[in-house]
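Journal club side-thread
Mid-discussion, someone asked how the predicted structure for our own chain would compare to the paper's figures. Pasting it here so we can look after the session.
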Amino acid sequence: MRLPAMNAPAELRRRIVDAAPLADDRIVVVARGPLVLMAHGLCAVEPPLREDCWIEAEGGMLTAEETMALLHHWTTGAPMGRAV
């Protein structure tokens, strides 16, 4: 797997669940910018709310867990999947 570059264009997105019955969830773009900034932004979201957030970047989607592992890799050089 090829890891995305820190400066790759990315979007931080969030699913908004409507409280009204039968209403569709909305997906909003929270921020756009370099992947490394979007990753730090996602990690700043309160843990219970992270499950409704993700990052879209070249090569696909990153969940909060994958994003934290990628930040850990960039910071320490540790293999992906070994985030603490």
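Post-session note: The two ends are 21 Å apart (CA to CA).
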